[in-house]
Batch of 3 targets.
Target 1
Amino acid sequence: MSLGAMISKARRDAGLSIDDLSDGTNIRGALLREMESDEFTNCGGETYARGHIRNIAKKLNVDPQPLLDAYEMEQGQSVRSIQDLWVENSLMEVPGEPRKVSWKVLAGISIASLLVIGLVQVQFVSNSESPIPTSTTTTPAAEQTETISDGTKVEIVITATRARSYLLISDEAGVTLFDGQIEKGEEKIYSSTSELTLKVGDAGAIDLRVNGKTIPPIGTSGQVVTVTYGLDS
């Protein structure tokens, strides 16, 4: 029996319709029908698909492990590392052969990092003590509320307006700032010095503001979208 057939049988045994299961899991009915037909391409990736399967098993009061085992066997993919997920999401290049790094190189990197941090702190203190220049130009209040970025950082405000969604957010160095779910009605704010990359599991569920500007919809309901924003976005 295929995974889709297993889910369908468990749902019928529980006396639930597709709509009932959708209400109990917050998974769209159309996507549940695809999953029961052994179609998992619109789940938003392997990690997201496993989360759907666990939610379904919990609602149907069945052991999720047989369903997860069937998913692994049918999809023919092994568990991947965080590095693999970054590569899939275009957040980093495919790694080559590992190279040995001597302790001298590591020590040099550590010292350089400390120097950079020190310079940033000194610059921050210097900027905070500098007087704010007075402008003779009168700016309308509406324009002031739209100007959040001062040109030294990029800021993204993510609001799950219509439904919850999976988010993966990283900065210009490839460091993950957030990897998980944003619930419906929840708002998250992230900033970085030059660039932010955002992967959304359900593009139609969220609204974005970047550097104080409202961004048009980046996708439709259930669509997986990856976007990058910089200082001039």
Target 2
Amino acid sequence: MQQQHLHNFLERYFEANDSPILENEVSHLKVQLSIDLDKLLMNRPFYWHYLEKTGGSPQPMQLTLITNQEQAPEGIRGEPIHFGSPRLHQLFHSTKSLGGFIRLYEQMQTTGNRSLPLQPWLCLNAKVSFQCDRKKDVLLSLGLNLIHGQIVPDFFELIKRKPLTPRIPDFCFTLSPLITPKSGITRLQKMVQTYAENEDPIWAKEAIGRWESDIALLEAFYEEYEEKPESYELEKQALEDQYKPRIHVEIINGGMFYLQQQVFQFKKEGASS
């Protein structure tokens, strides 16, 4: 089952990065790499440098990845890939740079010559980490309508049920944003900051309590020393590193989504369906 999951990941990875799949069998994938993926994956800096100098016609490589060695055809030439392999690690690592931002459109079924407007939504996915000697991670997905400014929590959960496509559908057009993406990112970043600041501080107070308790034990251990040795300072610093409460915010990725939906309605708690 793991290899099947790997196969599915490879399909999505190459399709999302404009690299057509030439062969898609149960045992392997053969892919025509895009120029960007060839530069990223195939380690041919001198080839691409030469083309840039001479103005030659680029010829990205084809790549065959064998996901099921037992079912692979006899004589197939390709690169076995599995969980833990250097190639898969390279692909996972590359998703951070390739998948930092995405642009998708809601797939609409239109009839006749009637054009449908799609409104721009800016999405920001972030991780808020509350760290001390313990750690709690919270994932936030926020969406901002760049026309009228509605901010929607759990945005990913709402849009993942919608059919999305990387190309604008026929007979659809996008509305120009009234809020610039730069301003929108600032608004969403402030929302993430507000969430972090409004977290119940009990976790930090309890961490400080455990910190003070261990400091008291440390002081008791070294109380007979007139001059504290270097080990005392090292252990004291180690306790600070372990217990000191801190909040770390990481922006994971983001995207622009063009949707027909103008606003998202939410049911009030306790309301009947």
Target 3
Amino acid sequence: MNNSEILIIDDEVQIRKLLNITLQSNDFKVIEAASAGEGLIMAANHPPDLILLDLGLPDESGHSVLKKLREWYAKPIIILSVLSSEEDIVKALDNGANDYLIKPFRTGELLARIRSALRVTSHEDKGPLVDCNNLQIDLSARTVKKNNEIIKLTATEYTLLSLFAKNEGKVLTHHYLLQQVWGPGYIDQSQYLRVFIAQLRKKIEEDPNQPKFIITESGVGYRFVIDK
């Protein structure tokens, strides 16, 4: 039985109805808000396990709501929006959204993204080990193993991989990765990222040309996926 509670902040009645039916049929608890103001109050009074947030709200921009939530709310936020421009997607992810789905979306994909986001949250306090099939990342010992053999990584490669491991399932934008790994002066140096992603894939993937761990989100960034 799933006890996770999800807050839907969306002004479209039909979307809320669809989400409510889908989520409850998968054993999630659901609460709803039809406006930014109502959603912020509900989130503050009774913080849910995850928030589904629309960007096109009637009383305030969803981007603004996202920023306000991220001042105190640390759990997953997934954006559901008709806005499909790269600018809107990158802006939302850079402002702290865990994921972004464009309406109309497949319910199966939404449920998979929700499960992934909640899984990361539930595992946050269970130790610094990422163990998936033939790949083990021990953040405490700062070691990475493939097929039980230690992989030698440069300091930058390890920093990048550990950042992915700590944010499993979440889309990390080019801007975010460059700032976190190289610093604010490198946010336009996307070639740095491409080179190191290619190097990491050669070391941790079975087939670097068909990666299973580091997935490209075209025009946006990368997602680290652990298939458990």
